């Protein structure tokens, strides 16, 4: 598929994003409409990804944590806590296996998302609400891309690492707020998705967040127990909404973490 040209300088990214959102048909709607050129909104000009920098040659992979060990005798709980701590300090991302969610439930969730996105355009539009960015509590987002199996990458030690999905595993990342409240003990890693040529890619993402309304006065800062004379606070106290607003207005070619705006 070729990239669409805009030689006359008339390209308006925000306008194209708005038009795509208003269709409520997503990427599938574009494919069903007979798309022949890749829209410029899907091309990240600022960062041409170097395929050779992936982890396939070095066998580097994010940690895998087995919660099934909780059912064994001994210090399994302490060992799992230590593995989560290590993953948070070094990676931000890790995969969780044997989490007591039956594989058939996970499979049905994926099938349900696939069935939803593969509906006729009219039914898909009727069943797709506008996104509530300031939602409080768990926020679940689903996506289905017709030709993109896998593709998740995490930036680790100056290279992009491919995240290979494990059957019935949950991919977990801690994120910016966890980095802030742990005073940089846990790190929030850059990550993205590199489109593949085989598929489909089905995604279910659940974000946990609280106190995002404008009127909420709850402030978040480094946990007091983690602040000492040797390790003073790195960040100001902020509202959750302040961080979310920065994250959603961040440009694609902006490599600066939203947290940098709140450093002391």
Explain this structure:
The chain is of the alpha/beta class and 264 residues long. The chain folds into two domains: 1-43, no CATH class; 45-210, B-lactam Antibiotic, Isopenicillin N Synthase, Chain (Jelly Rolls). It has seven helices and ten strands. The strands form four sheets. The chain has a three-stranded mixed beta sheet, with helices on one face. A three-stranded antiparallel beta sheet has the order 7-6-9, with no helix packed on it. The chain is globular and about 60 Å long. It starts with a strand and ends in a 15-residue tail after the last helix. The model is unreliable at 49-57 (pLDDT under 50).
What attributes characterize this protein structure?
Jelly Rolls, 264 residues, 7 helices, 2 domains, 3-stranded mixed sheet
């Amino acid at each position: 598929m070729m990239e669409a040209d805009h030689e006359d300088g008339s390209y308006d990214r925000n306008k194209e994003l708005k038009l795509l959102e208003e269709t409520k048909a997503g990427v599938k709607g574009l494919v069903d409409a007979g798309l022949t050129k890749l829209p410029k909104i899907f091309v990240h000009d600022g960062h041409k990804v170097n395929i050779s920098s992936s982890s396939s040659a070095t066998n580097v992979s994010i940690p895998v944590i087995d919660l099934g060990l909780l059912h064994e005798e001994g210090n399994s709980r302490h060992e799992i806590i230590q593995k989560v701590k290590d993953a948070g300090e070094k990676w931000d991302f890790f995969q969780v296996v044997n989490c007591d969610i039956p594989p058939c439930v996970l499979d049905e969730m994926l099938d349900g998302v696939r069935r939803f996105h593969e509906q006729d355009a009219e039914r898909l539009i009727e069943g797709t609400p506008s996104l509530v960015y300031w939602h409080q509590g768990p926020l679940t987002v689903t996506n289905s891309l017709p030709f993109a199996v896998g593709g998740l990458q995490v930036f680790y030690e100056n290279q992009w690492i491919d995240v290979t999905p494990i059957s019935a595993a949950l991919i977990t990342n801690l994120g910016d707020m966890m980095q802030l409240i742990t005073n940089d003990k846990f790190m929030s890693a850059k990550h993205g998705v590199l489109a593949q040529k085989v598929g489909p890619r089905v995604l279910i993402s659940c974000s946990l967040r609280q106190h995002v309304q404008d009127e909420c006065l709850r402030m978040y800062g480094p946990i007091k127990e983690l602040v000492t004379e040797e390790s003073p606070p790195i960040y100001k106290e902020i509202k959750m909404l302040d961080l979310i607003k920065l994250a959603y207005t961040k440009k694609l070619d902006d490599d600066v973490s939203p947290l940098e705006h709140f450093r002391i």
